[in-house]
Amino acid sequence: MTMLQSLDPATGEVVWEGEEADAGVVHSALARARRAFPGWAALPNDRRVAHVQAFKAALEERREGLATVISRETGKPLWETRGEVASMIGKVAISIAAQAERAGERRNAMPFGEAVLRHRPHGVMAVLGPFNFPGHLPNGHNVPALLAGNTIVFKPSELTPATGAAMAECWAEAGLPDGVFQVVQGGRSTGEALVAGEIDGLLFTGSAGAGAHFRRLFADRPHVILALELGGNNPLVAWDGDVEETASIVVQSSFVTTGQRCSCARRLIVPDDAFGRDLVEAVDSLARRVIIGRWNDEPQPYIGPLISPAAAAAAKVRADELVARGARELRSFKVLDCMGPAFVRPAILDVTGVDVPDDEIFAPIVQVTRVPDFDAALAAANATRFGLSAGLVSGDDALWQRFVLESRAGVVNRNRPTTGAAGSMPFGGLGESGNHRPSAYYAADYCAYPMASFEAAHADGNAAALAGMLTP
Ligand code: NAD
């Protein structure tokens, strides 16, 4: 038996402790989900909606407790995790609307009867969740997949099992039939057992490396639908405008959630002129004002620690590598040992003219590139194998039109942080950021497949329709 623990990254205190699910436990969960599938899929839609509404009521009841659990496990300030729980609650109405709009039933009259479009569930879905939004992101798969009639075996991140357990309690309160929603706790080997098992879909939010692994792993299992929501190396082009406002957009884009959002701006692209210089200075002085602290400190900090001391040490290695390649430290990256080994200081590195790897660094490090003109800015923005989010700060409509036309990313924002996203929109990326199955409003698309039918009440008319036949 292997034990799993999650720790408060700010204090090292144990938040959750339990057994990891081994391959045997995972396979019996999958077997239960398989048995539950036909009954759940056959329920009328409004019955599934009622269960999901009951889940929403359970979330509402536990709002503050759930925010606290997420904060303790991730170190995120309470203001942020309260917002995360609000997004989980909001997901229910959005998913019901999305399912009706994108995956409902349509009937067209035909001379013989009807053409009917239906959407059918895939079957048993494996859901693998990340640590950074351990409630909201797997919830963005779970709710639409259940509404569509799938059953689920969900493995939360090994760093956030308490959040996964709290979500499971809410689903239990929703009175789902046995086997419809199950949680298995564990790390890599539990995840491997899950994806090796009898599944019909893998709904994954996590790193691009794991996503690439799954693409290869499932190459010979084409019946398994893959929805891959992965990372990015996102550009923010800050071109003109009010320097203070622009600096706020940069800080929000790059440092919110201690840089642990998939949509964070990793690369700041500025003109090599007075605006660019003033902006970088303003970002630096705003970064100095960022309060770093524990999730329940008062006044509330802007950011907490990274997810673990190991993540902080790894980010330090990456920052040092950039500096060794020639990056200039406008504000250096530091592990704030005086606060605890997972706390870090956000960094601003000028990498103009430096050959830097096109990788995601999941930490508050923004790499600045100065460019001579807007063509060069666009080229720099698109010079990535990823394509999740991108942003432009500019009051110039013509530049925005070019940016929208030429940006290769799934989320492209103007005069708003790159992290700005709405559940009423699709959320997903191109290139190595995904596999063309965006989540959020479009999750309904990967949770069910379309089935087209020609339907006539009787067989009359078919014989008469045969042309080119010999007379009997
Ligand atoms: P991760 O890839 O390390 O892990 C995600 C989940 O997959 C975990 O539950 C983990 O146990 C499991 N897993 C990982 N490798 C596996 C394997 N080979 N077999 C089976 N299971 C495996 O990701 P993370 O560190 O938890 O999350 C951070 C990453 O997620 C960042 O790269 C971030 O950009 C990305 N992310 C993307 C989105 C999006 O919507 N595009 C949103 C949030 C986070």
UniProtKB/TrEMBL annotation:
Record-level GO BP terms? L-arginine catabolic process
User: Mind listing the GO molecular function terms for this protein?
Assistant: succinylglutamate-semialdehyde dehydrogenase activity
Upper lineage: Bacteria, Pseudomonadati, Pseudomonadota, Alphaproteobacteria, Sphingomonadales
**Do you know which InterPro entries this protein is assigned to?**
Ald_DH/histidinol_DH, Ald_DH_C, Ald_DH_CS_CYS, Ald_DH_CS_GLU, Ald_DH_N, Aldehyde_DH_dom, SuccinylGlu_semiald_DH_AstD
Going by the entry's taxonomy, the superkingdom of the source organism is recorded as: Bacteria
Per its record, how is this protein called by name?
Succinylglutamic semialdehyde dehydrogenase
Q: What is its EC number?
A: 1.2.1.71
- Which residues catalyse the reaction? 229
Q: What Gene3D superfamilies does the record tag this protein with? A: Aldehyde Dehydrogenase, Chain A, domain 1, Aldehyde Dehydrogenase, Chain A, domain 2
Note the Pfam families from the entry. Aldedh
Q: Which family does it belong to?
A: Belongs to the aldehyde dehydrogenase family.
Report domain Aldehyde dehydrogenase positions.
4-445
Broad EC category: oxidoreductase
Q: Which UniProt keywords apply?
A: Arginine metabolism, NAD, Oxidoreductase
